[in-house]
Design brief:
This protein is mostly helical and 107 residues long. 72% of the residues lie in helices and 0% in strands. The longest helix has 29 residues.
Length: 107
């Protein structure tokens, strides 16, 4: 299980770094801070799936709450949306630290 978490976290961090480099080159070209939101990235890749996810959330019980949360998530930079869960998954997949305590006479 730890291996799956680490691999998935590494892939998400790698994707976030690629998106960060793309946004960095756009920012250098524009002489201003430019970032690609998740909505813009999703619209470039596959617009019908964005509409399908929005209609799926509309048919749920907490549709208003889900719509607000979904729109807020779509406004965040794409590198942050993929990077933060990637870091969390990579940290969850770490090997647990073992504390070793020594007695005074073992030093």
């Amino acid at each position: 299980m730890r291996l799956i978490l680490r691999v998935l976290g590494t892939w998400l961090i790698g994707l976030a770094l690629v998106l960060l480099v793309i946004d960095g080159t756009k920012s250098l070209g524009a002489n201003a801070v430019v970032y690609t939101s998740l909505a813009n990235l999703w619209m470039q890749l596959h617009p019908p799936s964005l509409d399908a996810v929005a209609s799926f959330f509309d048919s749920r019980f907490f549709a208003d709450l889900l719509e607000v949360a979904f729109k807020a998530l779509l406004n965040y930079p794409a590198f942050a949306v993929f990077g933060v869960p990637g870091i969390i998954l990579a940290l969850l997949g770490r090997k647990p630290k073992r504390e070793r305590f020594l007695r005074h006479d073992q030093i």
